[in-house]
Structure formats: structure tokens, C-alpha cells
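testing teh design pipeline on a random one, pls ignore if ur not involved
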């Protein structure tokens, strides 16, 4: 290869090759689909990771329920271990959900301002969408606060799963073994049953408060507060 044809990334022309593509409509439109497919691929991977965490959470619930109700001699604190495991899964899930939403926000920015405008040029377009997208690519930021992410994941997934364990635990310490007093059954080694019950109920009250506490929405989702049209239906 001739030296004049080699690519030197330190030269001014090499650094500005992408900038030139961004100024030419034809070059920009040929570059955009490749970037869009890459973002969609990252978003799909993030969704798969979220689904995997939920699958593990459901598997843990099935395991602790089987162990706790296998016989009257099975210790009920297996269900408490399941609650702890779900809480750990929630922590992982929140971090993954925030990363997923950051990618989804970029995908939605392109869909709203490029593809939607191609279908209907009369619609609204965010005037600074290219600058905002470029800034986010240079310095990626999370769009959803930890509090909102916890609230959304509790509301959609983890509070129902935790509720299953709570109902099972209350049944296990009260009715599963006739003749046993609940505070004796609820006890774990070194901790009285009354203390265990107070801790568990306090945990669920806090979880319920976090789930129901109103927060301003920052997540870049779809199908929320949208009036159904001719081809959209309420599920």
C-alpha cells in the first residue's frame, strides 16, 4: 500500500472524516442504520440480562417453597433466606435496569426524531436531538435515579414475588404445624420469633412505601399514559 493511502488517525482529515459524514445527508443516512442496529442490539442484550435475573429469582422462590414445606420438620427460615436472595437480585436488577434505560433512551431519541419524522414530516422534532445524542455518546449518563429504578422494579416484578414469600412464611409459622405457637416457629437460631416478625413486617412496610411513593417519571418507556387510537387497544 502506498504511504499516501495509509490511514493515520492523528491527522486532522482522519479525525474529521465522521464529522464530514454527519454534514452530508446521504452519508449520514447511510451511517445511521448501522448505529441504530448497534444500539438495538445492546438494548436487546440488556433486556435478556434483566429476564435472566427474574428467572433466577423465580427459581429461588420455587426452591425455598419446596424446602420449607417438604415436611413439618423443615425450618421456616428457608423462606427468610429466599427474601434475602430476592433483595440481592433486586439490587442487581436495578443496576441493569438503569443501564438498559440509558440505551433505550438513545434508541427512542432516534426513533422519535428520524423514523417518526420520515413517516410523518409534519410531526414535532426535537431540534437539539443530534447534539444531545452526541453528548451522551461522549459522556454516557444514567437517565433514571436509583429511587425510580427501585420503585419501578418493585412494582412490576419484585413486590409480587416477595408477597408470595410473605404469604407462604405467614402460613408456615401459623397454620402449617398445628399446636405450635407462631413466635416459637418464627424464631431463628439466636433471634426470638417476635423480633423476626417485627423485622420482616418492617421490611415489607418499607418496600410497600417505596413502591407506592409517587415519583416523577424519567424512564424512557413506551405505552404509558397513551390514549388508544384506531389501531391501539388497551390491554
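output:
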Amino acid at each position: 500500500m502506498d504511504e499516501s493511502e495509509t490511514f493515520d488517525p492523528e491527522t486532522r482529515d482522519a479525525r474529521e472524516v465522521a464529522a464530514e459524514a454527519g454534514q452530508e445527508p446521504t452519508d449520514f443516512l447511510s451511517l445511521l442504520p448501522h448505529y441504530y442496529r448497534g444500539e438495538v442490539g445492546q438494548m436487546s442484550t440488556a433486556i435478556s440480562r434483566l429476564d435472566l435475573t427474574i428467572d433466577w429469582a423465580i427459581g429461588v422462590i420455587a426452591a425455598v417453597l419446596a424446602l420449607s414445606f417438604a415436611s413439618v420438620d423443615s425450618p421456616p427460615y428457608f423462606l427468610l433466606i429466599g427474601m434475602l436472595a430476592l433483595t440481592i437480585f433486586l439490587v442487581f436488577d436495578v443496576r441493569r435496569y438503569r443501564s438498559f434505560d440509558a440505551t433505550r433512551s438513545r434508541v427512542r431519541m432516534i426513533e422519535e426524531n428520524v423514523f417518526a419524522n420520515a413517516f410523518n414530516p409534519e410531526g414535532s422534532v426535537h431540534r437539539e436531538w443530534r447534539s444531545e445524542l452526541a453528548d451522551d455518546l461522549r459522556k454516557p449518563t444514567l437517565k433514571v435515579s436509583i429511587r425510580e429504578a427501585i420503585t419501578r422494579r418493585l412494582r412490576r416484578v419484585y413486590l409480587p414475588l416477595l408477597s408470595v414469600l410473605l404469604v407462604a412464611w405467614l402460613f408456615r409459622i401459623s397454620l402449617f404445624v398445628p399446636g405450635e405457637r407462631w413466635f416459637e416457629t418464627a424464631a431463628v437460631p439466636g433471634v426470638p420469633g417476635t423480633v423476626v416478625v417485627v423485622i420482616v413486617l418492617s421490611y415489607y412496610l418499607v418496600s410497600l412505601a417505596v413502591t407506592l411513593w409517587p415519583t416523577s417519571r424519567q424512564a424512557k418507556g413506551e405505552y404509558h399514559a397513551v390514549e388508544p387510537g384506531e389501531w391501539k387497544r388497551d390491554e
